[in-house]
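ok, trying the design again with the full structure, not the truncated one.
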């Protein structure tokens, strides 16, 4: 290993190509954390040069390079093992400087910057060798555009004609925009602390820009020898700049292995990894109390399925490497999950399961999967995803009906336990055990899954029976036990199930709130019977019973937020007409008065009425979340 501090002129001025392997992550640096701090450093150096005619050296960090074996007569080529974000950013900055010089008719500085960002056509044999830095696959189209477009105005015109290019390669294009604009402002004196009235010395500023870029900015270049472990060094340095995701390390690991085996890594990338470099996978999504990149979540669920064990998010890369090595050493997989036996098959497996996981993130509107995932948010657990991946891989696209029945079994298990206020703390272990049990059965169907879940005992694993669900709905003060979003999900599902076939199906509004039909502060408008009020012991027992019953599901409904204040603590005679007049929910049709000739069972709303409505809600809930799934 050889390490030397070099300025940008020493690094880029010769005929040379720095190639960023496709197994590196895409360009991800951004304005706030990366471009703006770099610009502030560069502007400070340029301002100092203008004031003193002297240069200060500024250290930009390190890059790790590995020289490639070249065919005789070809140009010198290095792979960028670490520091590709820094190298790409410096090239984007110098391309912007070159184009600014061209716009200002400064041929001298235009040529100088051009020599730092491109090799002369007469010196290269292949098109990609024209570029001093050749980015990873997903960034190439955008990089070629900014490299050749010639200026910001031409760039914007091009993007109007091809807007999808910016959507696919946002960071490279936005980086060019940022540096081009900052350079233009500085060269015209608009970023000076005290802008002068006279025109700035443009030649002096161009010279300061050149002196800083060519001589003042320095990078420690670490050149690896044949004996150095490039993968180990890459992993050791992965925390610099924008931190690498476990997926970046896995990508690097797999493609380096494929490259060493002589495989066509360009083809492997296009077929199996290209999709992972899209913004969709790097978007941070909420799981529990934290946000994590979507690809991290996928890898955690994928490894839990393949390893049949819970994998910590902090150990994804290490777990993946151990998994690959274990399979190579002859460890057998399960009957249900075909285990990869080569680097290519690992890539194929990741790609296959990723397509299923993407459907979970973007389910078809109105599908059973969309309904399941919406209700899963209320259960607030992601531990079921490995099992979902397995079911999807085994059943889709061939047997959609059976897959939907599996979803019903899972939802029934999870929501029944939620309504019965049972713990979810062991779900990660539970669903790994379920997958192992399915392995032993050699098949996944709704019937088999139901049998597996019914076999568990104990409060931490049991599938609640109809009797348990019935008791909980009628007797548990669920408003005190569950978060309101969970209760809204339960009532919303019951409302959907009570949809009248004669009317159109409408989605629930998003602003619904939970309303106690008998209010929490009931004393003023909902008095106790006189015979009870006269007896202290009866009065105490009555208060305790009423305060308990009013928090059960039978006394809860959904209404719009705007209706809530007008109802709150009103008497039943006042509240009921307003509820029937303004609420169009299926859930609240229950409160409509009968026809004139019929007796009105809801003339009084008391504990007995709450229990009767609780019974109706149970009947609907038991059909939405059955203990025995029809067709299983």
């Amino acid at each position: 290993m050889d390490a030397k501090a070099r300025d940008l002129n020493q690094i880029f001025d010769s005929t040379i190509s720095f190639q960023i392997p496709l197994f590196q992550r895409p360009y991800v640096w951004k304005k706030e954390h990366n471009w703006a701090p770099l610009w502030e450093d560069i502007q400070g150096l340029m301002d100092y040069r203008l004031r003193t005619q002297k240069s200060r050296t500024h250290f930009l960090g390190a890059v790790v390079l590995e020289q490639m074996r070249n065919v005789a007569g070809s140009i010198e080529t290095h792979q960028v093992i670490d520091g590709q974000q820094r190298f790409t950013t410096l090239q984007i900055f110098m391309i912007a400087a070159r184009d600014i010089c061209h716009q200002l008719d400064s041929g001298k500085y235009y040529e100088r910057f051009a020599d730092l960002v491109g090799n002369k056509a007469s010196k290269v044999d292949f098109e990609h060798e024209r570029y001093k830095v050749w980015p990873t696959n997903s960034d190439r189209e955008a990089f070629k555009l900014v490299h050749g477009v010639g200026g910001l105005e031409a760039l914007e015109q091009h993007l109007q004609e091809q807007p999808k290019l910016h959507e696919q390669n946002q960071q490279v294009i936005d980086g060019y925009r940022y540096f081009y604009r900052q350079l233009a402002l500085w060269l015209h004196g608009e970023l000076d602390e005290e802008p002068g009235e006279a025109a700035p010395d443009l030649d002096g500023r161009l010279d300061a820009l050149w002196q800083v870029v060519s001589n003042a900015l320095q990078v420690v270049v670490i050149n690896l020898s044949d004996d150095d472990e490039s993968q180990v060094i890459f992993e050791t340095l992965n925390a610099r700049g924008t931190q690498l995701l476990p997926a970046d390390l896995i990508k690097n690991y797999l493609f380096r292995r494929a490259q060493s085996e002589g495989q066509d890594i360009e083809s492997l990338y296009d077929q199996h990894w290209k999709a992972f470099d899209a913004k969709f996978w790097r978007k941070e999504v909420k799981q529990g109390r934290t946000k994590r990149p979507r690809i991290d979540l996928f890898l955690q669920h994928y490894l839990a399925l393949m390893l049949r064990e819970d994998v910590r998010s902090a150990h994804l890369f290490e777990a993946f490497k151990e998994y690959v090595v274990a399979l190579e050493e002859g460890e057998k997989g399960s009957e249900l999950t075909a285990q990869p036996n080569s680097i290519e098959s690992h890539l194929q497996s990741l790609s296959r399961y990723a397509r299923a996981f993407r459907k979970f993130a973007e389910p078809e509107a109105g599908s059973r999967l969309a309904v399941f995932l919406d209700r899963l948010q209320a259960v607030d657990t992601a531990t079921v995803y490995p099992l979902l991946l397995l079911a999807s891989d085994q059943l889709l696209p061939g047997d959609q009906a059976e897959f939907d029945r599996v979803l019903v079994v899972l939802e029934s298990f999870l929501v029944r336990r939620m309504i019965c206020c049972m713990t979810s703390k062991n779900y990660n272990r539970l669903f790994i055990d379920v997958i192992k049990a399915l392995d032993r059965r050699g098949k996944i169907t709704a019937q088999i899954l139901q049998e597996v879940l019914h076999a568990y005992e104990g409060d931490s694993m049991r599938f609640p029976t109809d009797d348990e669900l019935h008791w909980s709905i009628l007797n548990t003060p669920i408003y005190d036990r569950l978060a309101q979003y969970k209760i809204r999900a339960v009532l919303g599902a019951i409302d959907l199930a009570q949809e009248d076939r004669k009317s159109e199906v409408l989605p629930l509004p998003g602003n619904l709130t939970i309303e106690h039909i008998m209010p929490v502060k009931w004393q003023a408008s909902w008095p106790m019977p006189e015979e009870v009020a006269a007896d202290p012991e009866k009065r105490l027992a009555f208060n305790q019973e009423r305060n308990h019953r009013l928090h059960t599901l039978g006394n809860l409904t959904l209404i719009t937020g705007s209706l809530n204040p007008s109802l709150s603590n009103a008497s039943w005679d006042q509240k009921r007409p307003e509820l029937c007049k303004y609420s169009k929910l299926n859930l609240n049709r229950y409160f409509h008065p009968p026809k004139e000739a019929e007796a009105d069972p809801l003339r009084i709303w008391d504990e007995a009425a709450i229990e009767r409505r609780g019974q109706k809600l149970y009947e609907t809930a038991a059909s939405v979340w059955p203990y025995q799934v029809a067709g299983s």
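Keeping the full-length input from now on. The chain has a mean pLDDT of 88.
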